[in-house]
Every structure is written in C-alpha cells, then in structure tokens.
Amino acid sequence: MKSTIIASIAALAMLSGCGSSNGDGGWSDLFNKDLSNAEYEQGVWSRNADGDLQANKDSIIFSKADYENFEVELEFKMEPNANSGIVVYCTDTKNWIPNSIEIQISDSDADAYKNRPAWQCGAVFGHVAPKFPTGGLTGQWHKMLVRCKGQQIDTYLDGKHVSSMDMSKWTDNKKGPDGTVIPEWLTKQKKCEMATKGKVGLQGKHGKAACDFRNVKIRPIK
Question: N or C: which end of the chain has fewer CB within 10 A?
Fold first, then answer.
C-alpha cells in the first residue's frame, strides 16, 4: 500500500510541475477563451466542449503580443504520426519557420521521425535532440514547459529536462556546434543573431494527425 501511495504522489507531481519554477508572478492564459488575443486563420482553430484547443489543418495560432524572458507551459495530446510544436521568438508570422525557434511535439515512434533525433518530441526542432527517448506518448495528455531566458532555452517534458539550447553557440547558419547539418529551409540566419523577443505560437494539425492543447499558460521571468 505504501509503495502505491508513493507512486501516486509521484505521478501527480509529474503532471502538476515541470521542474522549473523560477518565474516571477503568476501564470496567465496565453490565449483568451474566445481567442481574441490570438492571430490565426479563421475556421482552423477552435475550442471543443472541454475548452481544449484544436486545429483542422497545419496552421499556426500566434499570440498578438510579443514575449521576452518567459515560461510557457501546456498539456498536449497527440495522435500517432503527429508533428506539432511550440513556436517561440517568432518575428515574422508569415515566414515563421526560419524566423523563430520551435520546440517539437511529435510522435517519436513514427517512421518519419524515429531516425531523426532533432525531429523527435522535446527537441529544439532541427537543432537539438532530446536527452532521452521520448516515444510512447500518443493518446494521452502530457505536459511540456519551455523556459526562454535570453538566448538560453530549456524544455521540460513531464517534469524531466529534455533539451537545452544556448543560441549564442550557434554561430553558423549551416551547421550546429556539434557539426550537425541544418536544413537550408530551416535556418537562413545564425541563431546567435536572432531576436530573443517575439510571438509565441502552436502548430496545428499536420497531415492527418492531430494534436490538442489545454491549460496553455505563460508567465514572465527575470
């Protein structure tokens, strides 16, 4: 009985906190219930009866506000083969891919991603692979926290530190610090020169695989 209680407490702690609590002030909703403070393609993003955010195609929903030095936290539930993400530091919503940083939310077991570490769940997409295997996440709610403090980005998946990126070390727009080749379409500028203030967004349904979001919160940090 004692071991069961301890396991239950540990599971609750994992879902209620993500290992980084250095924020100042309280959390606030990134998007209003009616999405009035969001930029998105009409007819794509909506809330279901439970208030979860859903999209019917691959289109980004962005905050209207720009954020600098913050933590964003959310829960996500994805279908098999999903490819979604949290977009931060976006300075161009029309051409967001090379003008932002994306934290990947994906089905790491999918054939398209299982042999591409920097495309797996918890990765800084195309740049930094997760520190541990992140498979087996589909069909259930999981929590992700992304901490953005200047050029330092840290990601926590279900309470575990899954990836870290110091943008100041990315001084080449073709290769990362470890020599990993960056796809030309992904990075047209050096990450060390990118702005560390911009809009925050969520990627919508990719192909036939959806990813739903709930409890999407943000707070400032020093």
Answer: N
Alpha carbons 221 and 145: distance in angstroms, whole number: 13
pTM of the model: 0.88
68-121 per-position pLDDT tens digit: 999 999 999 999 999 999 999 999 999 999 999 999 999 999 999 999 999 999
Encode pLDDT of 161-175 as tens digits: 999 999 999 999 889
Residue 131 CB neighbours (<10 A): 15
CA gap 192, 151 in Å, rounded: 8
- How would you label 59-98 residue by residue, b for 16+ Cβ within 10 Å and e otherwise? bbbbbeeebebbbbbbbbbbbebbbbbbbbbbeebeebbe
User: Which among 131, 160, 191, 126 is positioned nearest to 15, based on CA atoms?
Assistant: 160
Write down the domain spans for the chain.
Answer: 2-220
